[in-house]
């Protein structure tokens, strides 16, 4: 029985203002055209300069708030009449950077120029102590430039992504990256380490499940100290699927007696309480409605579906009436994104699509149409969703920008993604 439960959970979690489904779509009739100019000193190698240019141009595109000129342009930092206007390119603004690097650190001087008047409208110096983290330097620049033009915030670009990737049979490692996978840092290795979950909003710690000991154990890993602390163990399986907004409570899926249910765990008191109590499979609990209720996946009506229940109330309700085989879910306030297997899809047996719903309305929005789209996660922003895109034995991180109805993919170079959080 426990093997079937573990297989189900892996399928559910891996195989795969106003009302956010309606009102977050911000219509921008004409996107401003922007050019990116590299004004870096010639002693900075061309590969580093071009890489930084691609990061900035890519971020501007993913923001969905700019029409980005593809040309790699070079200029002086002060600029002359031809460099400050670019009349032949018919652009509205110019983002100019000058990147300098030493052995470890990196600095970028940045200007935003009105290409109609040649006037600098924004200027700032950015620095980072580890030049390997240059992607985050580029993300910060674009976040600020986006704010300067008054577009909806893209601060989510500064968030770190954490994921587990399979490296071999019963072997996986936990990695921290930026959303483009341009920067990656391995933080946990050895054995089977899966289902990482950020512990707090400042992303200084995370939880994960280790299968390296006598029993599956959830650990808390502190990124500031590099130390880890055992939180709780359980026979069969145990997964932390969500953390409360204040970081004090965890939602756990556990099967201490070969039966998966959802529990709430208090970090300070170490008290654990059972929320669901069903003689089938309840997994993947996520807080909703200001942490007063949970949404979760259950087979209590025959096939995997999405339900809601109060934390201290045993009555439940079905949330989704579309499709027959729901999988992983993610929540943001009153909004839920989930992966659903399209058993009758014309695109084949392995099609998993993403859908967005609200707990306050009956509105349903389909987000993908083809392929295996799995394990969706909201950013700290109801307009942006990350998910796993499977290509046979390869994986990519997908980004959906709801307001622009656009999707972007960033391929993982080695390993296969097991789960993600950000």
Tell me what the structure shows.
The chain is mainly beta and 422 residues long. The protein has five helices and 30 strands. It has helices spanning 2-13, 20-23, 46-63, 81-85, 134-148; strands at residues 33-38, 67-68, 73-74, 93-101, 106-114, 119-128, 161-168, 171-177, 184-188, 193-198, 205-210, 217-222, 228-233, 238-243, 249-254, 261-266, 272-274, 282-288, 293-298, 305-310, 316-318, 326-332, 335-341, 352-358, 364-366, 372-379, 381-391, 394-401, 406-411, 416-421. Helix 3 (46-63) packs across helix 5 (134-148). It starts with a helix and ends with a strand. Residues 1-17 form the signal peptide. Keywords: Signal. It comes from Sulfurospirillum multivorans.
Note the topology.
Layout: H1 2-13, H2 20-23, E1 33-38, H3 46-63, E2 67-68, E3 73-74, H4 81-85, E4 93-101, E5 106-114, E6 119-128, H5 134-148, E7 161-168, E8 171-177, E9 184-188, E10 193-198, E11 205-210, E12 217-222, E13 228-233, E14 238-243, E15 249-254, E16 261-266, E17 272-274, E18 282-288, E19 293-298, E20 305-310, E21 316-318, E22 326-332, E23 335-341, E24 352-358, E25 364-366, E26 372-379, E27 381-391, E28 394-401, E29 406-411, E30 416-421
- Chain oligomer state: single chain
Radius of gyration: 23 Å
Number of strands: 30
**Helical proportion, percent range:** 10-25%
Distance between the termini: 32 Å
Q: Which residues sit in consecutive blocks of at least 5 with pLDDT less than 50?
A: 1-28
Shape: globular
Question: Into which percentage range does the β-strand content fall?
Answer: 35-45%
What structural class do helix, strand and pairing data support?
A: mainly beta
- Mean pLDDT equals 89
Number of helical segments with 4 or more residues: 5
Q: What is the makeup of the main sheet? A: 6 strands, mixed
């Amino acid at each position: 029985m426990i093997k079937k439960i573990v297989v189900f959970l892996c399928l559910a979690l891996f195989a795969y203002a106003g009302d956010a489904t309606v009102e977050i779509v911000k219509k921008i009739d004409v996107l401003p055209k922007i050019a990116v100019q590299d004004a870096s000193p010639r002693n900075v190698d061309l590969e580093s300069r071009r890489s930084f240019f691609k990061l900035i141009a890519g971020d501007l595109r993913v923001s969905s708030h700019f029409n980005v000129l593809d040309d790699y342009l070079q200029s002086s930092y002060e600029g002359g009449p031809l460099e400050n206007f670019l009349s032949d390119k018919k652009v509205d603004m110019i983002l100019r950077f000058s990147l300098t690097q030493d052995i470890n650190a990196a600095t970028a001087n940045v200007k935003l120029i009105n290409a109609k008047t040649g006037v600098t409208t924004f200027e700032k110096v950015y620095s980072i102590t580890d030049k390997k983290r240059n992607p985050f330097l580029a993300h910060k620049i674009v976040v600020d430039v986006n704010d300067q033009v008054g577009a909806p915030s893209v601060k989510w670009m500064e968030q770190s992504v954490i994921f587990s990737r399979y490296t071999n049979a019963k072997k996986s490692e936990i990695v921290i990256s930026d959303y483009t996978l341009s920067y990656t840092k391995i933080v946990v290795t050895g054995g089977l380490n899966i289902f990482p979950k950020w512990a707090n909003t400042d992303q200084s710690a995370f939880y994960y499940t280790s299968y390296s000991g006598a029993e599956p154990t959830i650990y808390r890993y502190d990124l500031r100290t590099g130390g880890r602390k055992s939180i709780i163990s359980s026979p069969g399986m145990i997964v932390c699927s969500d953390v409360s907004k204040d970081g004090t409570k965890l939602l756990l899926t556990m099967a201490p007696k070969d039966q998966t249910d959802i529990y709430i765990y208090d970090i300070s008191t170490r008290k654990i309480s059972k929320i669901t109590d069903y003689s089938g499979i309840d997994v993947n609990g996520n807080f909703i409605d200001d942490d007063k209720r949970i949404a979760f996946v259950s087979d209590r009506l025959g096939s995997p579906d999405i339900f809601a229940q109060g934390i201290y109330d045993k009555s439940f309700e079905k949330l989704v009436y579309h499709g027959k085989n729901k999988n992983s879910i993610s929540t943001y306030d009153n909004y839920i994104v989930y992966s659903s297997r399209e058993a009758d899809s014309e695109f084949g047996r392995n099609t998993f699509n993403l859908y967005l719903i609200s707990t306050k309305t009956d509105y349903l929005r389909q987000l993908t149409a083809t392929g295996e789209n799995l394990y969706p996660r909201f950013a700290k922003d109801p307009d942006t969703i990350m998910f796993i895109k499977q290509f046979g034995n390869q994986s990519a991180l997908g980004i959906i920008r709801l307001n622009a109805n656009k999707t972007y993919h960033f391929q993982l170079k080695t390993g296969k993604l097991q789960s993600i959080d950000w």
